[in-house]
UniProtKB/TrEMBL annotation:
Residue numbers binding AMP: 31, 36, 57-59, 85-88, 92, 161, 172
Enzyme Commission number(s) from the entry: 2.7.4.3
Database matches in PANTHER family: NUCLEOTIDE KINASE (PTHR23359)
Alphabetical keyword list: ATP-binding, Cytoplasm, Kinase, Nucleotide biosynthesis, Nucleotide-binding, Transferase
Superkingdom of origin organism: Bacteria
Family annotation (HAMAP family): Adenylate_kinase_Adk (MF_00235)
Keyword DNA repair set for record: no
Protein's UniProt name: Adenylate kinase
Lineage, opening ranks: Bacteria, Bacillati, Actinomycetota, Actinomycetes, Kitasatosporales
Gene: adk
Binding positions (ATP): 10-15, 127, 137-138, 200
Pfam families referenced in this protein's UniProt entry, alphabetically: ADK (PF00406), ADK_lid (PF05191)
Length: 220
């Protein structure tokens, strides 16, 4: 299957992308991984992207699209892929359609992870990270440390990242609503959107997504 995964910050896209790609036997293609891989390998696209990033500018759509095209042409993506973080706006969605047409391919589904805005704020603003090891993550509601402000694993101080503050989260949501959310309507016009709730245990959400994708594929 060829799938685009969308949803607001805090919807659990990263977690679900990895799980769904594994269950479906297709590669998980994220823009973050694409940038890191191209920059670390010092490809021409990586050098170009880094020049924009070093200057504090956004990487142009055409560079992101070229990286995605290169990745989708790899042998492991022959039977499908799951795109996470791309496309981010309607112009990228149009470019993706054109790219797929050129390769005589089509998308099978656009999976929209739906979560109430206040839940997004609660999920992200409640995160606390260990200063000693950022892989040690806690939450003031969902995964409390035994001692407030102290990492259960190593005893390090827990803190809230600046980009996890409520004000920053709400700004990120505004960006999502203005830039990325319009692609849902774009794909609805193509009857590709499958919307599921991203509330509940991780395993339940994965199963919900798999069942929804199965129904979508069977209906075509």
């Amino acid at each position: 299957m060829r799938i685009v995964l969308v949803g607001p910050p805090g919807a659990g896209k990263g977690t679900q992308a990895v799980r769904l790609a594994e269950k479906l036997g297709i590669p998980h293609i994220s823009t973050g991984d694409l940038f890191r891989a191209n920059i670390s390998r010092q490809t021409e696209l990586g050098k170009l992207a880094k020049s924009y990033m070093d200057a504090g500018n956004l990487v142009p759509d055409e560079v992101t699209i070229a990286m995605a095209k290169d990745r989708m042409e790899q042998p492991d993506a022959e039977n499908g892929f799951l795109l996470d973080g791309f496309p981010r706006n309607v112009s990228q969605a149009e470019a993706l359609d054109e790219l797929l047409r050129d390769e005589h391919m089509t998308l099978d589904a656009v999976l929209d992870l739906e979560v109430p805005e206040e839940e997004v704020v609660k999920r992200i603003a409640g995160r606390r990270i260990c200063r000693n090891d950022s892989s040690h993550v806690f939450h003031v509601t969902y995964s409390k440390p035994e001692q407030e402000g102290v990492c259960d694993v190593c005893g390090g101080e827990l803190y809230q990242r600046d980009d996890d503050s409520e004000d920053t989260v709400r700004k990120r949501l505004e960006v999502y609503h203005t830039q990325t959310e319009p692609i849902i309507d774009y794909y609805k016009a193509q009857e590709l959107v499958v919307t599921i709730s991203s509330l509940g245990p991780v395993d339940e959400i994965t199963q919900r997504a798999l069942e929804a994708l199965k129904r979508e594929k069977a209906g075509k």
